[in-house]
Amino acid sequence: MNDHQRRVDDLVKEFGGYWSPFEMLAALMEEIGELADELLKIEGVKGKGDPEKLKEELGDVMFALSCIANYYDVDLLSALEKSIEKYRKRDEDRWSNTGG
């Protein structure tokens, strides 16, 4: 568990503990919806966006994701490193090869 996840863990335990996995998933989906709404605003599709609100929504998604990761004892930074390597290998020609 990295330092940020540990801080989330401390706060969640201070407030009484983790929700059930599906409640945490629902919370994550709610936060992703709020992020999507803010992105629509930032991109001018739906009103006027606020970069600080975008940061807040990204933080909320990270918090909710950290709760799920903590519940299952997954270090998010290690998982991210594995994903970066997966994409590096899988997609190495995808972005540089424009077909021409």
Identify the notable features of this structure and list them briefly:
single chain, 100 residues, 70% helix
How would you characterize this protein structure?
This protein has helices spanning about 5-15, 20-40, 50-70, 75-90. It is mainly alpha-helical and about 100 residues long. Helix 1 (about 5-15) crosses helix 3 and helix 2 runs antiparallel to helix 3.
List the helices and strands and how they pair.
Elements: H1 3-14, H2 21-42, H3 51-71, H4 76-90
Helix pairs in contact: 1-3, 2-3
Share of helical residues: over 70%
The helix/strand series, from N terminus to C terminus, equals HHHH
Radius of gyration: 17 Å
Number of helices: 4
Query: Which outline best applies?
Result: flat
Largest sheet, in brief, is: none
Question: Alpha-carbon distance between the termini?
Answer: 45 Å
Return the average pLDDT rounded to an integer: 94
Q: Which segments are poorly predicted (pLDDT under 50) over 5 or more consecutive residues? A: none
What would you call the structural class?
mainly alpha
β-strand number = 0
Strand proportion: under 5%
